[in-house]
Design brief:
Elements: E1 8-16, E2 19-26, E3 34-44, H1 46-53, E4 70-78, E5 90-93, H2 103-106, E6 131-135, E7 139-141, H3 148-151, H4 154-167, E8 174-178, H5 182-192, E9 198-202, H6 206-214, E10 219-221, H7 223-226, E11 233-238, H8 245-252, E12 253-261, H9 274-280, E13 283-286, H10 292-304, E14 313-317, H11 322-328, E15 338-341
Parallel strand pairs: 8-9, 8-11, 9-10, 11-12, 12-13, 14-15
Antiparallel strand pairs: 1-2, 3-4, 3-6, 3-15, 4-5, 5-7
Helix pairs in contact: 4-5, 4-10
């Protein structure tokens, strides 16, 4: 069907690793139980770079794909059976297409759905596009005056909220965050609200450490400096996913402490010392994505002003300049924070 006379919607398709194209089609029509969202902003993260480079595990991507799992937008139309009052609402949405009926989903663990892996931007069309259709049940509507540019980072904020839930920070506790990228700096903001006695950030980049101090950290250390802080922290939240950071995070925890791993590690990462693990009686949790409850936590924290992702954004590009935008992500420039696409 041609697009003459009809409103056009653009999508950025990655056909295979290293190959992308911008296509123009008619605006999608939401089906029963779905909504049509006009995308305001979409973040690019390392997972998107892995998709583009062909380094994501084959079980967690399906080519060709429209990437984009970090996004915000406005509901433009609703399908059959969806509350029409959602039209015009600013919103974000969960990425996992959880079935909602399996045992894990019924227990609230939607990120562990037994129905198999399906996620917006990896196996389902994502938000590197003008429009996105998805099930209305996944929406988390925002306040009418919400900053949609900042709200595009609520997906990583939901991952951080899942980590904080798992870590159970207590007032007056010593807490460390390993890594001061997007996840780490959002973690600092959210953990600062728990009134820790100390909130230490470990990152080799001095500028990121200084930014963490502005966000509520009490101390910023390089990895070399952090060796003197081993065994000090009741809670350690690892966010970097570097080859050494899972093991080093465990060394920072005190005996009986808690370690939450949120970084996405690659094969060959240094393993956790089982002797240290058993002698120290550590509690270790890993996080992959975010459950519905963690999304709710993140959206509430955003609405209350406990987290403000806007200062993390350093670059914004239109869809037509995707090649420039994706090249920045993971390139190692310490001045590069969150990169957004603005359809």
């Amino acid at each position: 069907m041609g697009t003459e006379g009809a409103e056009v919607s653009r999508s950025l398709i990655v056909d295979r690793p290293g190959a992308h194209r911008l296509v123009r089609r008619e605006v999608p029509v939401p089906g029963p139980g779905e909504v049509l969202v006009r995308v305001a902003a979409a973040g690019i993260c390392m997972s998107d770079r892995e998709v583009y480079d062909g380094r994501r595990d084959a079980g967690y991507v399906r080519y060709p794909v429209v990437p984009g799992h970090e996004w915000s937008g406005t509901v433009e139309a609703v399908g059959e059976g969806v509350d029409p009052a959602l039209t015009g609402r600013r919103t974000v949405a969960e990425g996992f297409r959880a079935c909602g009926v399996c045992e894990r989903c019924r227990c609230g663990e939607t990120s562990l759905c037994d129905g198999g892996y399906a996620e917006t931007g990896f196996t389902e069309p994502g938000a590197f596009a003008d429009h996105l259709t998805l099930p209305a049940r996944l929406l988390h509507p925002l306040h009418d005056a919400a900053d949609l540019r900042a709200a595009a980072l609520l997906e990583p904020a939901a991952v951080v909220a899942a980590a904080v839930r798992a870590g159970r920070p207590g007032a007056g506790e010593r807490i460390a965050v390993v890594g001061a990228g997007t996840l780490g700096l959002l973690a600092v903001q959210l953990l600062a609200a728990s009134s820790p006695a100390e909130l230490t950030v470990v990152d080799p980049r001095r500028a990121r450490g200084e930014q963490a101090l502005r966000f509520g950290a009490t101390e910023a250390l390089s990895p070399e400096q952090s060796t003197s802080a081993r065994g000090r922290f009741g809670l350690v939240v690892e966010t970097a996913g570097a080859p050494t950071t899972a093991a080093s995070a465990c060394l920072l925890a005190r005996r009986g402490g808690r370690v939450v791993l949120t970084g996405m590690f690659t094969p060959g990462a240094i393993g956790i010392d089982p002797v240290h693990l058993s002698v120290s009686q550590l509690e270790i949790r890993s996080i992959f994505g975010a459950s519905s409850s963690a999304w709710s936590d993140a959206v509430r924290a955003f609405g209350l002003g406990l987290i403000d992702p806007a200062p993390l954004i350093t670059h914004e590009y239109p869809l037509e300049r995707f090649d420039e935008a994706i090249a920045l992500v993971g390139a190692g420039d310490p001045k590069t924070g969150k990169v957004l696409l603005r359809p």
